[in-house]
C-alpha cells in the first residue's frame, strides 16, 4: 500500500511505488527524453539516406543511371574508371562494337578518391571482366584531393553512403563533416516533405529544392549514351575552346593511392578479372609543358604498382583541335581517335581473357 501525504492546501498525492497518477520519476523523464532525441536523429539520418534526392541539376545526378548500366551489363564486360576525361572523352559504343563485349563508362569527375571508385564497382566485377583505370594525373596522391566531395553524391544518389563508408576513403575529421552534411540533408528533406505532403501525395508537386543550375542541366540521362558517355558536347557548334589552365600532376604516388590500386588489382585477380591502367586524354600542347612531371610520376608508378600500364602517356596526348573546354576533355574529333587507340591497346588483353574464360 502506498502512503499518502497531504499538502497544506489539502491536496492528496501518492508517494512511493510507480502506480500513482501523476507520478513520473526524474530518471524516467531523462530516459524518455534520450530515447525521443535518438529517434529524432535516426529519423533525420534515415530521411537523408532513404528519401529520394531533391533532383536539382548537378553533375552527380547521372550516377544512378551509370549504375543502372553497370548492373544490366552482364559479363564479361569492360568497366572504365576515372574522372571527366572518361565522361567527356570516351566512345563506349565504338569500343563495345570492336571488342565485342559490353562497355560501362563510370567516369564522372576527378574529385573522388580512387578507393571510392573501386568500392563503387567491386560488387559488379565478375570472371572475365576487364577494368580499365584512367585517372587524371592529380589523382595519384592526396596533394590535390577533395575527398569530402563524395558527400555531394548523397543528395541525388543516397545509396552511395554505403560505398563511402565501406571504402574508408574519409579520415575522422572528414567523416565528421560528412555526418554534418547527412544531418543537414535529412533535415532539408523532412522539412520539404512536411511542407508539401499534400501536394506530394496528390502528385501535384515536384520533389525538388527548386534551385535551378543551368550550367549543370546538360548532365542528365538524356545526354548519356547506352554506355554512360556524355554526348551533349558533341552537338555543340563551339566545341573547341581549350582551357589555358595547365592540368595538375601529382609530385609523387601517394601511399594510400598505391595501396588502393594494388589491393583492387588483387581483388580483381581473385574474382577472375583483370585491371589495367591507361593514361587520360590531354592536350598535346599542355602535355609538352608537363611532360617531365608526368614521366617522373609514371616512373614511380611503374616501380610501385602491380597493375600494368598498357600505353605511354604521350600516346593519349591529342592535338588542340580535338580538345573540348577542359584540358582533359575531347570533342567529336578526338573521341573516335582515342577509342581507336584504346581498341588497339586493349584487344590483346581482351583476347587473352576470352581464351582464359571461354
Distance between the termini: 83 Å
The domain count comes to 1
Number of strands: 8
The percent of residues in helical segments reads: 40-55%
| Global geometry | globular
Please state the average pLDDT score: 86
Order of strands across the widest beta sheet? 4-3-5-6
Rg, please?
27 Å
Tally of helical segments: 10
Biggest sheet overview: 4 strands, parallel
**What structural category do the secondary elements indicate?**
alpha/beta
- Low-pLDDT sequence parts: 15-19
CATH topology: Rossmann fold
CATH architecture: 3-Layer(aba) Sandwich
Order of helices and strands: EEHHEHHEHEHHHEEHEH
- β-strand amount: 5-15%
> Class in CATH?
Alpha Beta
Please characterize this protein's 3D structure.
The structure is a single chain. With about 350 residues, the chain is α/β, with parallel strands linked by helices. The protein has a single domain (about 55-215, about 240-355), classed as Rossmann fold (3-Layer(aba) Sandwich). It has ten helices and eight strands. The chain has helices spanning about 25-50, 65-70, 85, 90-100, 115-120, 160-165, 170-200, 255-270, 285-305, 335-355; strands at about 5, 10-15, 80, 105, 130-135, 275, 280-285, 315-320. The strands form three sheets. Strands 4-3-5-6 form a four-stranded parallel beta sheet, with helices on both faces. Strands 1-2 form a two-stranded antiparallel ribbon. β1 and β2 form a beta hairpin. The protein is globular and about 80 Å long.
